[in-house]
Amino acid sequence: MSQYLRSIFYISKYTFLEILKSKIMMNVVLFGAFLIFLCLVASEFTYGVPQKVALDIGLGILSIASVGISIFMGVNLLAKEIETRTIYMILSRPIRRSAFLFGKLIGMAQILLLNICLWGILVLFTYYFLGGSFQSLIIWSIFFSFLEALIILCIVTLFSLITNPTMSVIYSICMFIVGHATSETLLLVKKSYLLSKTVKFIFIFFPNLSKLNIKQHVLYKQSMSMSYLLGSSGYALIYILIVILICILIFRTKRLD
Q1: Are 94 and 177 in contact (CB under 8 A)?
Q2: Among candidates 197, 142, 205, 158, which has minimal Cα distance to 179?
Q3: Which of 149, 180, 241, 252 has the most CB within a 10 Å radius?
Q4: Residue 104 CB-half CA count within 13 A
Q5: Could you give the CA distance from residue 227 to residue 252 in angstroms, rounded to a whole number?
Q6: End-to-end Cα, the chain, rounded Å
Q7: What's residue 246's pLDDT?
């Protein structure tokens, strides 16, 4: 293993263990209990399909909570390290800035994956407890929530490199909202050729998060083509890679004082 890969591995491991020991994991446990309680209560007010209501609420809350954790972690990616002056000690060693950034993002991605897996298990447990039947599209929906959270994590990290924490959070929330409104907006302006082309060009810079929102298909159609699922996954991974590369380019020239 090269020195560069070793640096990424150790930084990601340190980041994962540091966050794992923090209070955020206690919040995850409390939120999981709240999630089950809310799903069970909501299902009591429905007739005939309580499992679908529980699944709808569970997947929705899982998505929003995952994005919330992404913003919380991403905005503190460098701020906390600079405040504690840990970053100066790390970068004084033969560690590249890109390796440091990659390691931090991978460590945070592991925390996200752990949280989403735990919440996903709770959602599935509640769904099956209320009489739901297995469908692979639920797993895809949980996986897409993970990809969505990764996109937001990378975006808030990018904004944290060029502006202050407060504005980073605001910009990231705006990107999240616009990302989910992409498809609907394009449908509204499709009758105007010029406006349609302009909106499409602008939306190149925004993540099309509506591609990852398959909850309606999970609840009602219960099937989707594999080409769409793989295509949406590929789109999300390419977008994440591009944002990470931009982050690295900015971080290489950023003054940390």
Answers
A1: no
A2: 205
A3: 149
A4: 27
A5: 37
A6: 32
A7: 92
pLDDT score at 100? 84
What does the DSSP assignment read for 65-103?
Answer: HHHHHHHHHHHTTTHHHHHTTHHHHHHTSS--HHHHHHH
d(CA 40, CA 51): 9
**What is the signed CA dihedral for 178, 182, 188, 189, rounded to 10 degrees?**
100
Written as six digits, the tokens of 154 are 């990378």
Amino acid letter for position 256: L
The size of the chain, in residues, is 257
Residue 83 confidence (pLDDT) = 66
Mean pLDDT by 10 residues, the chain (257 residues): 78 83 69 70 67 81 86 79 68 76 90 88 82 83 93 92 86 87 68 68 79 81 82 92 91 73
Report which residue type is found at 198: T
Helix, strand, coil percentages for the chain (3-state, nearest 5): 80, 0, 20
DSSP state of 217: I
Residue 69 CA, chain-centre distance (Å), reads 8
Question: What pLDDT score does 37 carry?
Answer: 73
